[in-house]
Amino acid sequence: MPDGLIIYVDIERCLGCLSCYFACATEHSLTKTTYTAPYEVPTPISRIRVVPALGYNVPIRCMHCEKPPCVEVCPTEALYKVAEGPVLLREDLCIGCKGCILACPYGAISLDLGKKVIAKCDFCVDRVRKGLTPACVEACPTGALRYGRVEEALYELRKRKAKEFATGLTGTSGSDAVLYIPPSGGEEHGCNSH
After folding, report:
1. Are strands 110-112 and 117-119 parallel, antiparallel or unpaired?
2. CA nearest neighbour of 101 among 114, 85, 82, 119
3. SS in 3 state form for the chain?
4. 61 with 48: CB under 8 angstroms?
5. At residue 177, does pLDDT exceed 70?
């Protein structure tokens, strides 16, 4: 992605509030304002979906695959991958054949019935090129969607795992080679348990 920047998703933080959904639709509207976008014809559609699964709300979006199957099946070359990484759409070339919808392994492409073309996440490439964050990330009130480097996402994961190890709540058996013994309540560190 642009300069090694990615969108990373922390499923545990997603409330299913749909702020990302509405921000995306607004960003892809003609007026780009929340007050007028819902009244536009055709109504702008979001390129992100929030799907409930196993008790979590999971934001589903284009993964901008390294070898995107949607690009491979597009008969008009309306879909293409740019050097920065995102898979983009040339709306004027799209014939609405739906081949890409069927080819996408993530179910991240929709048909815009109003325009009779497909709609998919474009990584807010125009915003990113201006140094802004993608609209969905900017709108997320809980930090479930973040924009940064892979190292930042890994640091967040390591922090979470360190807390699990420290509390003994790892949720998995881990490995036979390493065993973490959680603190016994903090007495050794000057903490009083009463």
Report:
1. antiparallel
2. 119
3. CHHHEEEEECHHHCCCCCHHHHHHHHHCCCCCCCCCHHHCCCCCCCCCEEEEECCEEEEECCCCCCCCHHHHHCCCCCEEECCCCCEEECHHHCCCCCHHHHHCCCCCCEEECCCCEEECCCCCHHHHHCCCCCHHHHHCCCCCEEEEEHHHHHHHHHHHHHHHHHHCCCCCCCCCCCCCCCCCCCHHHCCCCC
4. yes
5. no
Q: Beta strand 145-149 with 117-119: parallel, antiparallel or unpaired? A: unpaired
User: Alpha-carbon distance 174 to 128, whole Å?
Assistant: 39
Nearest 5°: phi and psi at 48? Answer: -130, 145
More confident site: 124 or 164: 124
pTM exceeds 0.70, yes or no: yes
Pick from 111, 59, 58, 68: nearest CA to 88: 68
Kindly report the CATH number that applies to the domain delimited by 2-160: 3.30.70.20
* Rounded mean pLDDT, 8-18: 94
Residue 99, φ and ψ in degrees, nearest 5: -60, -40
Distance of CA 58 to the CA centre of its chain: 9
Tell me how far apart the alpha carbons of residues 77 and 94 are, in angstroms, rounded to a whole number.
Answer: 8
- Specify the residue for token string 């930042």: 152
